[in-house]
């Protein structure tokens, strides 16, 4: 059960939360704020991947890279998709 929680449930909740945040930000502040936050999250993911690459223990590096991808990846995707949905709704006047 804990493997399913780590692999499926937590990234899904992170992605959905980021999608709601992105939708709200796009409706309130425009598309640029969403993209700025997504770029910051992408930089965090890249930094974690570089850190994983610099580790001497390959298993620790694999663990850091996997947890970074499972944690930050859905946030980036959710922000961009939710922001796009919010931006389209804002453009249509809804």
Q: What can you see in these coordinates?
A:
With 94 residues, the chain is mainly α. The protein has one domain (2-91). The chain has helices at 2-29, 31-54, 58-92. Helix 2 (31-54) runs antiparallel to helix 3. The chain crosses the membrane at residues 6-22, 34-52, 58-90. Keywords: Membrane, Transmembrane, Transmembrane helix.
Which SSEs are present, and which pair or pack?
Layout (H helix, E strand, L loop, with lengths): L1 H28 L1 H24 L3 H35 L2
In short:
With 94 residues, the chain is mostly helical.
Number of strands: 0
Helix content: over 70%
H/E order of the elements?
HHH
Class from secondary-structure proportions: mainly alpha
Low-confidence stretches: none
User: What percentage of amino acids are in beta strands?
Assistant: under 5%
Transmembrane segments: 6-22, 34-52, 58-90
Keywords: Membrane, Transmembrane, Transmembrane helix
Features:
94 residues, 0% strand, transmembrane, elongated, mainly alpha, 3 helices
